[in-house]
Amino acid sequence: MTTAEQDTRTARALQGLEDSRSSVRLRAALAVGSIPDARSVEKLVERCAIEPEFSVREMLTWALTRHPASLTVPRLVAELRSERAQARSQALHTLSKIGERQAWPAITRALLSDGDDEVARSAWRAAAVLVPEGEEAELAGALATQLGRGGREMQLSLSRALISLGEAVLPTLHAAMTDLDPRVRHHAVATERLLRDPDAGFESAIEEAKRVAALQDQPGGA
Fold it and tell me: How much is the CA Rg of the chain, to the nearest whole Å?
């Protein structure tokens, strides 16, 4: 393929990202990823911030991973400061897929506690992937501030991020088990159980944590 032909294909694919039909946008994202071009990075990142379809966003992320990290990571890190929640969450998701640890300093406590649930969940996953060796315990402390947050799916996401850090999370979880907030205590107990027994279901782990807490609260309880 000549340079002119590739330029034409890239331009056509980038134009397809604006199509009103999600199927066309999906094919366009696939095409952009199939012919990586530095000029595509900006458009891919911009589209991630506004693309309404999950499958298309996933393809956009894949297309970005096909480009050199030296081009994509700085642009994605800049996107973390966006006022648009989807821009932040998708940038975090893509950074976790790229796995380049130079992005680690950009995973701030503000992102880990972001008011938007999807941003926070993406930040937890990205942090768990990018954390440098030896900093797991510090990250666990930051993540533990979010224990008890949200519904079951939200809490499970946090538990998975904590569990991925291994034994380094245990002191933090043990401290959280004495928190005044019962939701925090239950979540910490359930997370430790899942760490010890990965086959245990999260729902049953939460219910077991509640039963244990109820027994302990009774007169003469442990």
Answer: 21
Which token pair is 191?
A: 């997370």
End-to-end alpha carbon distance in the chain? 73
Q: Which helix (H) or strand (E) holds 80?
A: none
CA distance 66 to 157: 27
Amino acid at 141: G
Q: Whole-angstrom Cα distance, residue 171 to residue 197? A: 18
Q: Which amino acid is at 157?
A: S
pTM for this prediction: 0.89
Residues 98, 63 contacting (CB under 8 angstroms): no
* Separation of CA 86 from chain center: 12
pLDDT in tens, 14-43: 999 999 999 999 999 999 999 999 999 999
Inter-residue contact 161 to 128 (CB < 8 Å):
yes
SS3 62: helix
Bin 110: left if φ > 0, else alpha if -120 < ψ < 50, else beta: alpha
Q: Is 162 helix (H, G, I), strand (E, B) or coil?
A: helix
